[in-house]
Amino acid sequence: MLRKFIYRVGCLIRNPSIDKCYEALKESEFYSSEELHDLQQRKLTILLKFCYQHSAYYRKSFDKVGFNPLLEPINLDVLSKIPILSKDDLIKFNSEIHTTNSFKFKKKFFSETSGSTGQALTFYKDEVWDSYNRSSINRGLSWFSISPWDRNGYFWGFNFVFLHRLKTKLFDFLLCRFRLFSYSDNDLDKFLNKCKRARYLEGYSSMIYEVAKLANKKGVNLTNIKLIKGTSEKIYPHYSSETLKAFGQKIISEYGSAESGIIAFECPEGNMHLNEETCIVECIDGKAIVTNLVAMSFPTIRYDLGDYIELSDIECDCGRKHKVLKEVTGRVGKNIIGFNNKYPSLTLYYIFKNIALSSGLELTYRCEQSTIGFLTVYLEVEVTERLISLLDSEFGKYFKDDIKCEYVEKATVRVKGRKLKDFESFID
Ligand SMILES: [Zn+2]
């Protein structure tokens, strides 16, 4: 119970609204389709009015299409009048999109996410938005009888800068979490050992899969895990056959993004339910267009996530009427493959983030791999001697001599007609 206490105290300091948000989400969990529809309409009305009054960007963009939310009645159909936003828009018009009446927010959190071409998107997240996000995850966990303070193993985000690592360890302790720092034998053994006392595991599905494979190779077989949650990456069917064998569970998916929050969460019946209390998801030309209903400090209305999705009309046996997201087809996570080890592609994000933090250099990049042990790094800038030594030293921290990097200077980082990715692998 000490764990619960530590978790609750930390939560209430950081997120005073979290209990209220969680109760609201539990209240509407078994709403009918009509009730969910009404709830969305009410929240959308508040959001659109607020944006028109407090965001210079939205006021201009609504005016351009002759839409005035203060004068017109609002239903879900009005969305189709509003132009679609891209991630580039969020970066380019960042300050105009942010709403101005900051006094309304008790608290704001700085948030940063990797852009598709390495350029970071930064924004402020108001406290209620953040609380809804955490509550949405906690509601999903509750479907599997998991409490957020249960001991859990975490499969992502290793940063080798000492201070970051220290901070990470502190937060991990507070959240009763332990994590895998690398795929090395020693780290892996330690991690699997800790898994024997965990209730759930979460993280990048490609990493969970790799660990499950290694666990199977070592003959490790755990029965104490009640849930494995994969985030941010596509979960291939063959991933789950490995995790079933090693940990007795398939990987269930949580789908979301930093800007849009939790978009969908898989229920015990295996269907991903849209988190309709916090977002409206449209599927236009196969693309996910998401309106975040709870983000007031940095609203994203009709935001093109850059993912391809399929929605479904099926009724789920679990009794929840939230629409079902059949599949996310667009996001694929692959590893970078060295001579001896594998690395999640997210490593690149940390490498370039470290470069930006230490030298102030914001590099736009794209990496490609077609041969094991070699990585081609395309950079928009000129590659000077000084830059080479900086890149070599940051890459070296993660890859040591396992991967040889080739830098291509003054390169076009954007590939026309394809989804922007910071890493692309041509290895099967
Ligand atoms: Zn269901």
For the structure shown, list the relevant keywords.
globular, 428 residues, 13 helices, single chain, four-stranded mixed beta sheet, eleven-stranded mixed beta sheet, GMP Synthetase, Chain A, domain 3, alpha/beta, Rossmann fold, binds zinc ion
Question: Brief overview, please?
Answer:
The chain is α/β, with parallel strands linked by helices and 428 residues long.
Overall description:
With 428 residues, the chain is an alpha/beta fold. It has two domains: 1-332, Rossmann fold, CATH 3.40.50; 335-425, GMP Synthetase, Chain A, domain 3 (2-Layer Sandwich), CATH 3.30.300. The chain contains 13 helices and 19 strands. It has an eleven-stranded mixed β-sheet with strand order 4-3-5-6-7-8-9-13-12-11-10, with helices on both faces. Strand 3 (152-155), helix 8 and strand 4 (177-179) form a beta-alpha-beta unit. Mean pLDDT is 87; it is low at 416-420. Bound molecules: zinc ion. Residues 267, 269, 271, 273, 316, 318, 320 line the site of zinc ion. Zinc ion (ZN) binds at residues 267, 269, 271, 273, 316, 318, 320.
Indicate the topology:
Layout: H1 2-14, H2 18-27, H3 33-54, H4 56-64, H5 87-92, H6 94-97, E1 108-113, E2 121-126, H7 127-142, E3 152-155, H8 162-174, E4 177-179, H9 185-195, E5 200-204, H10 205-218, E6 227-231, H11 237-247, E7 251-257, E8 261-266, E9 272-274, E10 279-284, E11 287-292, E12 303-312, E13 324-328, E14 335-337, E15 342-344, H12 346-359, E16 365-369, E17 374-379, H13 385-399, E18 404-408, E19 423-425
Parallel strand pairs: 3-4, 3-5, 5-6, 6-7, 16-19, 17-18
Antiparallel strand pairs: 1-2, 7-8, 8-9, 9-13, 10-11, 11-12, 12-13, 14-15, 16-17
